[in-house]
Inverse folding.
């Protein structure tokens, strides 16, 4: 496989996604989409049905961030409760901080009132009993959704709501099913986003808002409880990708040895940490021994979830190449590191008995290289 | 030139170091551990960015900063190549300061990276590597040292061309293991294409009935290169099949039908 690398080296996120990232680093399961300021704030699927409040289905979006967001290459997409075939509706224009954006969708019949002037229109027919709506930074149809967390793993998915009997959603459960007179409505007029559909959304009467609606920035926090005083503060943080390498020892000494002997292998565990889902590659080379070269080699095994390099597969011992020859690939990882880093056990030894060389002190340098992808 | 030392690692480093220490509770901290953040840089044309280097170990370390070319092999494994060793190398456009960084334990320092593409550089993405290598500490035995490679992508201005092509689909028959399908792609555009998990799907059919649907993991293909996606078969299938390949990417969608014998 060739690796995925984020297009953005730096990701602006709110505090909750930061906590989720910490959780991910600690191995906690998380189903949450890459956070952005833009979220789905209302979903209505009863358009034109018997007794419907409105004649069309709609999806309302909200910018809960602090800067305007350009939706020029974005789409909203719908898949059925259990499906993985998505129907994109392209979006256009930009949404200011605290602004709403209304996407009008299919109508079953001329039953119910007209929506406010939509900002985008599509022909997708939403189901009341269950479905999935994704806000995507692309107009290409998704293929995820068969399992919980599958769509959230796609970095192009800015937000996801699974409702009713949906097979994919954010958090530990889907939002409730819809009806001809109720919507799934994000709490606090769209400001609440804890990446948990079941608690972020609740059933409410439909109140579609479009770009003409007065903006409602989220910086004010919830209203104070009666008899008390409270204040809200927006919190955000920039999380950078990082790559780390650590060695078990700085010096590998084989002690005293004679020509014809094969000194015992010495362990050198290499720990690599990466918080980038694209992973990394780990390789090795060495300098020639001075005053004369000796046949240095190694074996290695891969940590769980990583792939051993082809030359080292099956426990094979390989000669460590001498620069400027290309490195030997120890292995690759295509995911974030495990908690505490990925530990690559390597054993440094000789590929043949020590040759007949003049007595003396022989030294070389072995270099382990980690490259982010 | 030796960099000045500061003691405030960025949040990314804090998270990574916290992660590392969590797993090392039963073992002492390593003598030297290096962290670079960010782990890759994207620069739009002539641009400048900083890579922060941190010594998370218990010993002082001196780090040499150099540049090199970067490539991926057919299966996406990273390779260090000569600065002029590939068509779209940006290595010669990069300058950086300082070239030597001395770090006390738990200290960090910034390496400023500047890209200066030539005026008539081909539009699109160009790659390079910033290499940071610890110096050997002792003149005895076999010294072990560490090197971190930060991938730098420079996108030069001009028309962005996105074009992925399917070059072939074949069956790889491994002894005592399930067959795998190998899908070869070519990036004929001028920017790196990222394929999120599930963007490449292969449906295997016989007599109009779907036998299996295989999807590829996340992948990345640099401009002007080829790559092979490996799609393992999760159950034993034999005989002739029709393979329908569906590839979705930012530049569009490519579909193609192959006939295979498993």
């Amino acid at each position: 496989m060739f690796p995925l690398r984020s297009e953005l080296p730096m990701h602006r996120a709110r505090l909750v996604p930061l906590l989720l990232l910490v959780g991910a680093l600690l191995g906690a399961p998380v189903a949450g989409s890459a956070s952005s300021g833009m979220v789905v704030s209302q979903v209505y699927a009863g358009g034109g049905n018997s007794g419907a409040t409105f004649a069309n289905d709609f999806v309302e979006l909200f910018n809960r961030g602090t800067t305007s967001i350009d939706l020029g290459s974005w789409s909203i997409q719908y898949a059925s409760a259990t499906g993985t075939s998505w129907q994109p509706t392209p979006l256009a224009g930009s949404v200011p901080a605290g602004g709403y954006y209304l996407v009008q969708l299919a109508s079953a019949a001329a039953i119910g009132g007209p929506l406010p002037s939509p900002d985008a229109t599509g022909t997708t027919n939403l189901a009341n009993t269950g479905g999935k709506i994704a806000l995507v930074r692309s107009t290409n149809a998704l293929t995820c959704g068969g399992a919980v967390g599958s769509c959230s793993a796609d970095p192009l998915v800015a937000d996801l709501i699974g409702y009713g009997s949906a097979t994919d959603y954010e958090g530990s459960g889907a939002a409730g099913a819809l009806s001809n007179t109720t919507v799934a409505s994000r709490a606090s007029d769209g400001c609440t986003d804890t990446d948990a559909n079941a608690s972020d959304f609740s059933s409410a009467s439909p109140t579609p808002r479009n770009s003409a609606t007065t903006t409602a920035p989220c910086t004010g926090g919830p209203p104070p409880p009666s008899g008390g005083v409270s204040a809200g503060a927006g919190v955000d943080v920039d999380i950078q990708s990082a790559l780390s390498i650590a060695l078990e020892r700085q010096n590998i000494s084989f002690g005293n040895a004679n020509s014809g002997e094969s000194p015992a292998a010495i362990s050198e565990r290499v720990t690599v940490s990466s918080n980038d889902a694209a992973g990394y590659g780990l390789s090795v080379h060495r300098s020639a021994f001075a005053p004369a070269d000796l046949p240095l080699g190694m074996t290695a095994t891969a940590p769980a979830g990583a792939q051993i390099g082809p030359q080292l597969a099956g426990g094979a011992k390989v000669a460590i190449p001498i620069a400027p020859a290309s490195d030997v690939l120890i292995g690759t990882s295509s995911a974030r590191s495990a908690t505490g880093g990925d530990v690559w056990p390597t054993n440094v030894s000789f590929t043949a008995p020590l040759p007949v060389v003049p007595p003396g002190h022989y030294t070389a340098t072995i270099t382990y290289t980690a490259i982010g992808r | 030139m030796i960099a000045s030392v500061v003691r405030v690692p960025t949040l990314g480093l804090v998270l990574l170091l916290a992660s590392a220490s969590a797993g090392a509770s039963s073992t002492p901290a390593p003598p030297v551990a290096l962290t670079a953040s960010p782990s890759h840089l994207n620069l739009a044309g002539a641009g400048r960015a900083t890579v922060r280097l941190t010594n998370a170990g218990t010993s002082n370390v001196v780090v040499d900063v150099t540049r090199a070319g970067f490539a991926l092999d057919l299966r996406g494994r990273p390779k260090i190549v000569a600065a002029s060793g590939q068509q779209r190398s940006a290595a010669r456009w990069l300058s950086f300061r300082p070239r030597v960084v001395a770090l006390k334990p738990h200290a960090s320092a910034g390496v400023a990276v500047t890209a200066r593409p030539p005026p008539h550089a081909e539009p699109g993405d160009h790659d390079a590597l910033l290499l940071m290598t610890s110096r050997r500490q002792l003149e005895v035995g076999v010294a072990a040292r560490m090197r971190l490679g930060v991938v730098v992508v420079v996108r030069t201005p001009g028309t962005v061309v996105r074009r992925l092509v399917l070059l072939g689909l074949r069956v790889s028959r491994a002894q005592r293991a399930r067959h795998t399908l190998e899908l070869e792609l070519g990036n004929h555009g001028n920017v790196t294409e990222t394929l999120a998990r599930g963007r490449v799907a292969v449906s295997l059919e016989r007599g109009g009935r779907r036998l299996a649907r295989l999807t590829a993991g996340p992948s990345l293909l640099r401009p002007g290169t080829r790559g092979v996606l490996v799609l393992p078969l999760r159950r034993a299938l034999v005989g002739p099949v029709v393979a329908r390949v569906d590839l979705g990417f930012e530049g569009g969608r490519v579909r193609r039908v192959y006939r295979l014998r498993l």
Observations:
- Confidence is low (pLDDT under 50) at residues 1-15, 17-26 of chain B.
- The first strand of chain B starts at residue 33 and ends at 37.
